[in-house]
Structures are given as C-alpha cells and as structure tokens.
C-alpha cells in the first residue's frame, strides 16, 4: 500500500465543459485516515494541494478536471513537484469504477460523489490505475534579458553591454550547475548560445531529465529572466503505477573501443548483455540508467580501469573487482549459461556474475530475515552500501513512511568587531561604493527621461494614425467576424443533422427487424434467442444482468472458443434449453455440456437484431432431437467402453491368477 498523502477527487456538480464553474467532492487519505470535503471549487483544491503536496491525485476520469488536453496541461503545471495525476480506471482501455471497487472488496454507491472520491484514493493507495503523463522526460531552460533594450540613446551600447553581460554570467552559472548535475546523475544536456554585444542575447539548455529532477528554478531580476519548462508530449501517455520505480542492478563493464555491458537484477536475472563499438561515456550511462539504478559497477580485471571508475562515479555506486586475474576458462564457465557473442560480452558478463555470486549468501540471509512486505531490493542495496541487515531493514521500514523534516533556521552570522579605525575604513569604502552607484543611477535616470520624452512623441503620432485606421476597418472586421461565427454554426448544425439522420436510419432498420422477430414470435414461427458475445464468465454475467437467463432459454454464443467446463457450468446452472454456435467449441466444454444433457447445436439458422435473435421452433426441435439421438448413441458407446474396460481388467486378473 502506498504511504503518504493521496487526494481522491470526483465531480459533484456541473461539468468541466460547462460555463458554470464545477464543484468537486474531495477525499484526503492520510496515515490510514480519510477526510472528506464537499462542493469544493478547483481553485480551493489547488491551494489544498500546494499545502499538503500529496503523492497522488486520483480520479476516475481526468477530463472531469479539465475539458481538453490544453487545459489539462495548464492544470498540471500548477501542481506541486512530485505530485502525480492518476486515473484509477486505467488508460486507453478503462474499467468501470464500480467493477474495480468490487474486485478489491470495496463497497461503493456510484451515485455518491464522496464515496467515489474515497474509492479513487483507496485504489490509488493499492497501486491500481495509471499515471497520466503529458510531458516528456526533457526540460528546456531559457536565459534571456528581462526587458527590452529600447530604441537607444547616447549610452545605448553601454546599457546593451551590461544586460548581455548579465545574461552571459547567469548562463555560465546555470551551465556549471548542469555540468555537476550531469556528472552526478548521468543525465545529459545540450546547450545553445546566441552571442550579442558584450555577452549573450540568450542561452538555451535542453536537459534529458524530468523537470522536478533538474536543479534549476525559474527566476527574474532587473536584467535577466530564467524560464524552465517541460516538453509537452504529442498525445497523453499512461504509465502503470505497479511498474513505477527503478530497480537496483549489478552492472558489469568491459571498457575499450568496443564496450561490453552486462546488467543483472539483484535476483540474478539477466536484463542486458550487449557490446557496442565507439559508444561515448554519456551514451553508456544513459543506456545503463534505462534498466535501473546500479548498486554495483564491476569489472573483471584488477585494478579497476579509469573508464569503469568514471561510470561508477556517475551513479555513486559501489565498485567491485576480482582482486586478481580471472582465467579465460573460468570466464567461459561463468558466462556460458547466459550466452554471449564475443569476448567483450563474455568479460562484462563475467564481472556481473562474479559480483552477484560474491553477494549471493548475504542476499539469501536478507530474504530469510526481512519481512515480506518490505522492498527486498532496497534492503539489499543498503547492505551493499555497508549497512548491517538489521540497519538496512530499519532504514527501508522508515523510508516507507512519510516523514516531515523541518530544516533548521540558519543561525545569524556574527560579525567580529574590529577596532575603530578598521570600522571607519570599512564604512568609508561602503560610502564610496554607494556614491558611485548613486552617480551611475542618476546617469541612468537622465537616459531614461530622454528616451521617455522621445517615446511620448512617437506614441502620440502612432495613436493618431491608429484612430484613423480603426475607424475605417472597424465595420469591416465586425461584419467578417459575424459571418465567420454564422458559417461555423451552420457547419456544426449540418454535421449534427447528418449524424442524427444516420442514427435515425439505423434505428428504423433495427425496429423493422425487431418487429419481424416479434411477429414470428406471436405467430409461433420464432422462438426468442439471447445473444452472448463471448464464452466467458464476464460476458455471461453481463447478459444475465441485462436480459436475464432463466430455465428453458435458448442462448447463442457468438464466440464459443474462449471457455471451458467451469464457464459451461454457468449456463448449466441456469438450465438453458439449448446452446447455439457457429464455430467449434473447445472439447472440454463440449464434454461438459454433454454430461449435463444440454444440447449444443451448430449452424442453426437464426435471425439477429443486436443482442436479440429468434429461431424457428420446428428447426430447433428437430435439431434437439437429432442431438439427443447422438447423445444417446454416445452414452451407449461410453457405457460399452466402460463395460469392455471392466471385462478386460477382469480377464487380466483371472489370467494372473491362473499363472
């Protein structure tokens, strides 16, 4: 079960697509207890989210929060970092919330928004549902000037140089942070600079990581602004909650022009064995990161090569080397069970397998002593990093709970007072700097006043020109706008009319068929048949709930290939009169129907309309009589076979007795 804070939300009044602002029911799951809020508007929910910073926001339909993808993106940008939106009913192929609640033993009144919100929160805590992902794992950072440089003046170049220099300084600062971030985590980045007079006009960084992982925040000052944005996906992607999280791995590396990479899970399962020629360090790190977080980076030689050590530092993993040379025969013996294509793959496999074997005994002790409900891989990871098994279990148990840590307030900096002369000297230097700043600011104010006067004159001329143009084109624009609105409405109404006519035509056709079936039933020429679309428990239950299946009913299995004896027993319990099919049924299911004396009739002509159909009673009775004759013959043959088997067994025993 997921610990932490989880919000369940369900719409209570209105719609996200309506003009009226919708209201929601909210259930907050915190430490096993649930709090309820009714008739809450979205802006208040956002304030609550920013206060609680929950792990998940669980809903049964994401478009209850926003009418379209664009509005949904705008909403997700307002959420706190690391808060994920979850659709508990699934992604593209959704399940009803009521069915999900029943499958997990939860009671639900689907007409009560509070209960639906609470059910969403509980299901998300159980790992049910899929995360809604609207952003790529790519972040774009843009550094640019915070204001326009204007048309210029007598000190325009100096001002331009100052702003461009500030952009360059901020860009260099961000570049240093990203370089350290890439070195520590393995996430690469690209950069592009546009040079200007005295520095940079702008700088753009593209980081191959999610926004919450990137240690850069948006900011703005007098000269420079920094924007940080995630890259939107072309379409919504759904990620299963049960697949979330990165596994810990053991990585074997054989460095060189051709790099061999072998990755094992902490259970000894081979995840990757590959050799790549001419691959860069960043590409190696990125490929390893795709399979999880390395707990150990190993090599088959001693001492550890610098290239392997560099990869180890990228993940802050534990290093492993054999402590001596491994013979070629031993390498072949170790790697043979997994298979390899060349010596590079063999050597990387040798390093990974030898590492796993060196930890295998302690892993076994962990699995015996650790509680089953804790994450075994996390415990093993802590043990690899030097903790005892007890310490590792305690850490993982505490990590599974939400803990709030309050950062201590920074202590005020105490300045040591020097003697009077030193203090006077310091104050005079500060005064000199302030006077210099005041002089520069006065010059800048004079420049601004001159530019402001020039702009006022330009604005006056432009306003006169705008007034003349506005009066001449206003009527034309208004007319074109009105025509455009009416044309759009006409197109929409035409589409609705065409759709309505098509639906009406289909309904008339279906009504005609239903009348034919009903007419035959009244005349005694037709017997009603209930259609089941698949030979499965769910399809049979659906037909029972919708139309009912009672004794002496005739049913038609549209697809009889999926069921077995247990599924057949569901129809046998209802004591149906006959089962009609058009395709072959599995032998086991057919035998089950024979044993329960329920006729299974193939290729009987029926007249279908949707989920209803009819069959000629005479044809049905003839087919049932034929089936019963065959069943009687089959029963006699089976009894004969049983008698013959008993007789053969008796003869065999008599023969042994005589001998």
UniProtKB/TrEMBL annotation:
A Pfam cross-reference name: DUF460
InterPro entries: DUF460
Keywords: Coiled coil
Protein's UniProt keywords contain Coiled coil: yes
Coiled-coil stretches: 417-444, 483-517
Protein known as: DUF460 domain-containing protein
